[in-house]
Amino acid sequence: MAERAEVDVLIIGAGPTGLTTANLLADAGLTVALIEANPGSGDEPRAISATDETLRVMQHLGIMDRLAPEMLMDTGARYFGLGGKVIADVRPGNPRLGQPGKSQFDQPVLEGLLYEAAAQREKISLHFNTSATSITQDEHGVRVAATRLGARSLGYNGALAGDSGSHSAPPENSPVTELEFNASWVIACDGGRSFARRELGIGLQGSTQVERWIVVDLLDVPGNPEPFASFHCNGTRPAVVVPGVNGRRRYEFMLFDHEDGEAMISTESITELVTPYQDITKVTVRRATVYTAHQRIADRYRSGRVLLAGDAAHLMPPFAGQGLNAGIRDAVSASWRVAAVVKGEANESIIDDYATERRPHAADMVKLSKRIGWVVMNTNPVVTRIRDAVVTGTRALPALNRWLTQMRFLKQPHYTTGTVVPALPGVPHLAAEFVGRSLPQPDICVDGENTKLDELLGAEWNLIEVSAGHRLIFTDQLGNTRTALDTARVFDAATGTVLLIRPDFYVAGIAPARERQALLQSLLSKVPALGDFDTALRH
Fold first, then answer.
1. Helices (H), 319-379
2. Confidence grade of residue 165 (pLDDT, cut at 50, 70, 90)
3. Pairing mode, strands 302-303 and 306-308
4. What DSSP state is assigned to residue 417?
5. Is the distance from CB of 477 to CB of 470 less than 8 angstroms?
6. Distance between CA atoms of residues 259 and 371, nearest Å
7. What confidence tens digit (pLDDT) does each residue in 485-522 have?
8. What are the tens digits of pLDDT across the range 496-505?
9. Which residues belong to any copy of the FAD-binding domain (predicted)?
10. Predicted confidence (pLDDT) at residue 161 exceeds the cutoff of 80
11. Mind listing the pLDDT tens digit for each residue in 443-495?
């Protein structure tokens, strides 16, 4: 007989997206089971770039104090054209979310910290060496059958295991145990080859053309890392060099169609590829592999009570550094909605808003990654010369140059449909621009001391009234209020208004301060729990 477990939510896949989702759901008070086919968290350095929005989530999960020392913070990118000439220096301009706009990290370290956070949360049950085998559902819940190889395993931190050489998968002849998970909802974060996506019959849209790159990760690189990734758009064999802390460095080289992948990752080949950039004889090759980039997105993000997130929902080339970051956005967007529905605080229609908001932005990131890849990878001699001339020519056009060098082409999410409402009448135009965007997180002054804005937000929905004298008045759903000074004057344009903040830190709406009730009513049909504000404030 199968071992059975009943939980509010089952997460399939313990990569960064799955672990983030599990932690967020547990923090919202839900019971969570997380299953993963591998024996522990990942030990391979895959994703390498994190945005301010991703780091804001890590801040809320309580791991930034341990993650930050392992990151190269506040980085940019330098593009070299033909002949090794610098054609552009690019860096995010004026980050708004309380963290650097772009930073380099080590995925095993991030996954390991997320794993440890999940292992410490009592509402999460971990099941490693466990693979889903079938998914059935009705209007009440989802049943997932799974098999576990060997004894029950809570997993381990793959970053530490990789360093020590300890831990391994159970032997193939280990006993197999049948499992059955019954959940109200399932969130599938099981990667590009997602079992859940196939099981549910969800197809992929986009180009089937694949691009191959050689990825070489090094350790023990001497010296201090430069605060930028280098894109060598040399027209012969394009390459990307990404620095890290603690002696880490990554090289990525374009692989041509006629080249054999296995031969190109031999010691001799790797030495030949890396030597023009540095001496490889005094460093450690951590990993050399062939990476295949895809450009596809799931037809839909939802099938009944099962949601797709992360690489299960979208696959994109690495050039914009958005794959993992898109997955973390998915995790936050899906988790607060599912938590609200399970707790009876929102209607199920809010679940459809997950795809309404997230899928278009993910599709934009897939397209942007492809375009940046075209710039980097092009080997046509005529096109590369024109490219270099156009990019350097933007220096004569300041507005266009700022758009390029401040990475304004990397569109941040701006939701105009979904769980948002247009600004109510009487809101100034500039203040209306807050709606559908992530709430800024400047340092604010509370009782004479500076703190990050998020420290004053309650766990779920919040109201922020912007009053004269740069005063911010925070109110949570329980009616608790706190006041702070916006010393950075980020919210000056919204003076005299009140902002409605979602649990994922996005601004759901804005109204003149006297129209607070109308603002809450505008979303009450989707989120009845917003009525809690009225009850709390009356008392």
1. 323-342, 349-377
2. very low
3. antiparallel
4. S
5. no
6. 24
7. 999 999 999 999 999 999 999 999 999 999 999 999 99
8. 999 999 999 9
9. 6-368
10. no
11. 999 988 999 999 999 989 999 999 999 999 999 998 899 999 999 999 999 99
Using CA atoms, how far apart are residues 516 and 478, in angstroms rounded to an integer? 16
* Residues 128-143 pLDDT 10s: 999 999 999 999 999 9
Residue 442 has pLDDT above 90, yes or no: yes
Q: How far is the C-alpha of 170 from the C-alpha of 160, rounded, in Å? A: 18
Residue 370 to residue 362: CA distance in whole angstroms: 13
Question: What CA–CA distance (Å, rounded) separates 133 from 533?
Answer: 44
The model's pLDDT over 38-76, given as tens digits with 9 standing for 90+, comes to: 999 988 878 889 999 999 999 999 999 999 999 999 998
- What DSSP letter does each residue of 65-80 carry, written as one string? HHHGGGSB-S-EEEEE
Reported as type and span, the H/E element at residue 536 is helix 531-538
For CA atoms 311, 312, 317, 323, the dihedral sign is negative
Distance between CA atoms of residues 305 and 202, nearest Å: 14
Q: What is the pLDDT of residue 98?
A: 86
Q: How far apart are CA 36 and CA 179, in angstroms?
A: 13
120 Cβ contact list (under 8 Å, min separation 6): none
The identity of residue 245, as a single letter, is: V
Report the DSSP pairing between strands 306-308 and 176-188. Answer: parallel
Distance CA 395, CA 386 (A): 15
DSSP H/E element including 391: helix 381-393
For residue 365, the SS3 value is helix
Q: What is the DSSP string of 290-326?
A: EEEEEEEEES-SEETTEEE-GGGTEE--STTS-HHHH
Cα separation, 476 vs 456, whole angstroms: 9
How many other CB atoms are there within 10 angstroms of residue 271's CB atom? 13
Positive or negative, the CA dihedral 383, 387, 393, 394 is positive
Tokens of 421: 């409402």
